[in-house]
Write a structure and sequence with these properties.
The chain has 83 residues and is an alpha+beta fold. The protein is built from three helices and six strands. Helices cover 20% and strands 36% of the residues.
């Protein structure tokens, strides 16, 4: 299912529920696709996509969002670097 990205008022709550305030400062709000909120890391330029209601993580693959685990989502954004 292809979801349109809606760029409205930033929603930081899903990100704040996952990362420290210090690490949240490294992200830009990019919008939302359905209930999935999209954040882009300033340095790695990779996305951390978090479903607002459930705090589940998603990765954009083949034109849609596929659910992934927390560890996989953070590794995608940060690589092998620990946060």
């Amino acid at each position: 299912m292809n979801r349109e990205i809606d760029v409205g008022a930033p929603n930081w709550k899903p990100l704040e529920g996952v990362l420290s305030q210090e690490h949240c400062a490294d992200f830009m709000f990019m919008g939302s696709a359905g209930g999935i909120v999209l954040y882009k890391h300033r340095d790695t330029r990779r996305y951390l996509n978090i479903e607002a209601a459930t705090s589940r993580f998603y990765q954009y693959v083949d034109g849609d969002y596929a659910e992934i685990g927390r560890e996989q989502a953070l590794e995608h954004v940060y690589g092998s670097r620990q946060i």
